[in-house]
Write a structure and sequence with these properties.
globular; 15 helices; 14 strands; 16% strand; alpha/beta; six-stranded parallel sheet; disordered N terminus
């Protein structure tokens, strides 16, 4: 296989990589790519990012890293015009590797490479778990089946969780070229803050002794806000000192379905909808307990590791590798079980403040020991090792 490597200003060979992603909007996979690019060895690798959809909060942030960003103007599915534009960009950049980052962009990467003048190794990245294909939207289930049939064509398929990898192999993904590389967390960005200028309790006119249980996610069936709110209703009846903070896209008073659920359950006075925010590290540091209530789909949820990095004990449903992240520093409950979720919260509520703080300190230590973005064996270094191997593998 012939490499077309270019010379950098330091006279070292550089590997050009095109990253293709569905969008650059707020999301775990999008955040993972951004974190990855902040730590990628730029003396060795020259990245270009292509988003299938236009716009997104990460566009300017990635450009600020001096990385070119292109948009294809597609919908979620690859279109003929979008693929033609993708093919043109790939032929112009002439990458040494092509990295797809999500289902649809993995498919687009494989098709575009087939259409390109010079075939290059294509790697896929998957950030999803599949408890059941029936739980997925019909269109996504079709894409999963289609990519499973094509997975043996990829040079490497990288899963972000062990459970997700096993589930994908069970629905037909190729085992021979599969690999698991989990995510990592930025301990310099997500950390406990003493005397933070943002006092969430004061901004909400709540007493300082209020216990805040937080959740950060977009409004989507997989995030299962319904179970979260049912559990909250069981808690608010007996613990008026507890308030619930919900943050994320479409998590605001303009969401009629969400506000109706809260009103019916009678928890309006103790539930606060903050919408999409850009000050997540500061918000997380204000919580006493963090929760992920997802019913399905999660692979390696970023929010858990970020909360743990802020020394916040977590309660999470057992979806994807959530239990692997939390370990013995939090509580894991079955998905879609409001009684179990409420019982887990109650256990932490009844702890004294010092005991919760100790649990939070253990959580941050767990992230530092196992999932540190700046560790020598970080997920970035593992991806880079996969890239070096892929350069010398035959193109499928």
């Amino acid at each position: 296989m012939t490499l077309s490597l270019t010379k950098s200003s330091t006279d070292r060979q550089t590997v050009k990589i095109v990253f293709i992603i569905n969008s650059l909007n707020t999301g775990g996979a999008e955040m993972m790519l951004y974190k990855f690019l902040t730590r990628l060895d730029r003396n060795r690798y020259t990245p270009t990012v292509i988003s299938m959809l236009d716009g997104g909060v990460f566009v300017d942030q990635i450009k600020a890293l001096d990385i070119s960003v292109h948009a294809l103007g597609m919908d979620k599915l690859p279109t003929f015009s979008g693929l033609q534009k993708l093919r043109k960009i790939i032929n112009q950049v002439q990458p040494d590797l092509i990295q797809g980052w999500m289902y649809h962009s993995n498919l687009a990467a494989q098709i575009a490479n087939f259409l390109a003048k010079h075939k290059k190794p294509v790697l896929w990245s998957i950030h999803h778990s599949i408890a059941s294909l029936r739980a997925e939207k019909k269109s996504l289930a079709i894409i999963i089946k289609l990519t499973a049939a094509l997975s043996n064509k990829a040079t490497q398929v990288i899963f972000s969780s062990k459970k997700g990898r096993a589930q994908h192999l069970a629905v037909g993904y190729c085992a021979q070229n599969s690999l698991t590389i989990g995510d990592n967390f930025d301990l310099t960005k997500y950390k406990p803050t003493a005397g933070s200028p943002m006092n969430l309790r004061a901004s909400l006119n709540l007493p300082e002794e209020t216990i805040l249980i937080g959740a950060i996610s977009r409004y989507h069936p997989m995030k299962d806000h319904a179970t979260f709110l049912k559990a909250a209703a069981k808690i608010t009846a007996n613990y008026p000192v507890v308030h619930f903070i919900l943050v994320g896209l479409n998590i605001d008073d303009q969401n009629p379905d969400l506000t109706a659920q809260i009103k019916i359950l009678g928890i309006s006075s103790q539930t606060h909808l903050l919408g999409q925010r850009q000050d997540i590290p500061e918000l997380m540091a204000s919580f006493d307990i963090f929760t992920s209530s997802s019913a399905y789909g999660e692979s390696f949820p970023n929010v858990l590791g970020e909360a743990m990095s802020c020394q916040i004990p977590c309660v999470t449903t057992d979806v994807g590798d959530s239990a692997v992240i939390v370990g013995d520093t939090g509580i894991v409950v079955p998905p879609k079980d409001s009684d179990a979720l409420a019982a887990a919260w109650q256990k932490l509520i009844l702890m004294d403040k010092t005991a919760r703080q100790t649990l939070g300190e253990n959580a941050r230590n767990r992230i530092k020991e196992n999932f540190d973005l700046d560790a020598p064996n970080s997920f970035v270094k593992q991806y880079e090792a996969a890239y070096e191997q892929a350069l010398f593998k035959p193109v499928r």
